[in-house]
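Reminder to self: C-alpha cells first, then the designed residues, so the page reads top to bottom the way the pipeline ran.
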C-alpha cells in the first residue's frame, strides 16, 4: 500500500503492480460555482444573496447547484423575485476533469434571456 505512492512520487515509476494513490479524484465533478449581482436604480452592481432574495435556508436545497438546469432554475427564480426589468448578472463555472469550465459570464443581464 505504501510502495505505490512512494514509487511514483519519489522515483517517478508508474506500474500496474504498484498503483498510485489519488485522493478525491471525482468529488465535486459537475458542481457549479455561481455568484450573482443585481444592478441598483443608480446603476451600481451589488452582490446578490440568493438565499436572502428567495427566502431560502442556507442549509437547504439551494446551497449546492449541481447542474446547468438547476442554475437556470435559480436564475429564473431570482429574476421573478426581483421583478420586471431586473438586471441580474451571473458568473458561473462548472467543475470538470480538465478544470473549471465557464458557463455564464456577467457580460449580459441574465433576466433578459
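Designed residues (113 positions):
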Amino acid at each position: 500500500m505504501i510502495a505505490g505512492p512512494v514509487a511514483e512520487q519519489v522515483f517517478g515509476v508508474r506500474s500496474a503492480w504498484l498503483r498510485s494513490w489519488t485522493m478525491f479524484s471525482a468529488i465535486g465533478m459537475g458542481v457549479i460555482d455561481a455568484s450573482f449581482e443585481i444592478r441598483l436604480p443608480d446603476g451600481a452592481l451589488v452582490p446578490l444573496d440568493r438565499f436572502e432574495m428567495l427566502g431560502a435556508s442556507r442549509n437547504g436545497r439551494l446551497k449546492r447547484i449541481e447542474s446547468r438546469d438547476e442554475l437556470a432554475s435559480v436564475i429564473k427564480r431570482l429574476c421573478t423575485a426581483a421583478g420586471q426589468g431586473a438586471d441580474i448578472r451571473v458568473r458561473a463555472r462548472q467543475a470538470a476533469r480538465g478544470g473549471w469550465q465557464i458557463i455564464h459570464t456577467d457580460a449580459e443581464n441574465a433576466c433578459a434571456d
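Strands lie at 32-39, 45-47, 88-96, 99-104.
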